[in-house]
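Attaching the record inline, Q. Sequence:
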Amino acid sequence: MNQLLIIITSCIWRRLSLNKIYTNDLIRISNMLERTIMKCVYLFSAILILYSCTESEKDKITRLVKEWEGKEIVFPADLIYTKLGKDTVDYQMPINDFTILHYIDSVGCTSCKLHLTQWKEMMTQLSSICDLSIDFQFIFHPKNERELFYLLRRNHFDYPVCIDKKNRFKTLNSLPEEEAFHTFLLNKQNKVIAIGDPTQNSKIEELFLQIVKGEKTTAMSLPPTTQIEISPSVVDLGKFNWQKTQKAVFTLRNTGKNLLAVSKVISSCGCTSVNYSNEPVKPDDSIEIFISYKAYKPEYFNKAVMVYCNVENGPIALNVKGMAK
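Structure, as predicted:
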């Protein structure tokens, strides 16, 4: 990036000397250059931190980020909002400095995709560190409204959410199928300035916070990676009484040469809770991830806990399965 800046700057100065461009032209070009560089930084940061993936997946992510960067999000005029699934509310979208938009479709496990606890923490964090106005838009296209309303009440999530029964929002904006591109940071004009779920990726969270707080955003450098051994990678709890809490322990051993830093551990739904140490792990040492599972009803389950740390091909999935009877 520095070399690119030097090359562009030298070209501008050569043009200035040849064409005798005056001061106002220099200011205009400088501003254009700054905006271009910042767009490049946002783009590079998003591509770098979305996922560790194969080359073809990286190409696809790069294409989608380029396609969505600066795109205006359109909201249907008559969206219906509710609180805790009880009553509809007269909610008018305010004009804010930023909007964080999170869309959930009807594909897969709804409870595994909501992450309401993490969103409440994110909202509290932003309100405590930033004086700017930030709106949160939660747009759901649920396959089971009763389940969604139950989850909202269980997690005491009393923020207005939109129930988009006909999935007009996704159709109107032609959202991609990839869940990674269902969460956006928007500016006042509802144009996309960052992409990704900050509750599921600590680097995306860092990027969102930098932009919202007005800090200078630079291309993020990831910490040195290390290698780990996981024992076990899957825990089968077997058959058990669904009313009793079950526990599982996973051990991550640092087999590399650098410190192992676990930045975040996220459970796939509210039925699992996690406990672990935040201390860096030295080479040849280990860290234990403690997982508790509390079933809400008798059923077979297979839940994933995602561990975000400085290893290649992260995050790491730890799976807990069993039959709650």
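Helices lie at 2-19, 23-50, 55-68, 110-114, 116-129, 145-154, 168-173, 202-212. The first helix runs from residue 2 to 19.

More tomorrow.
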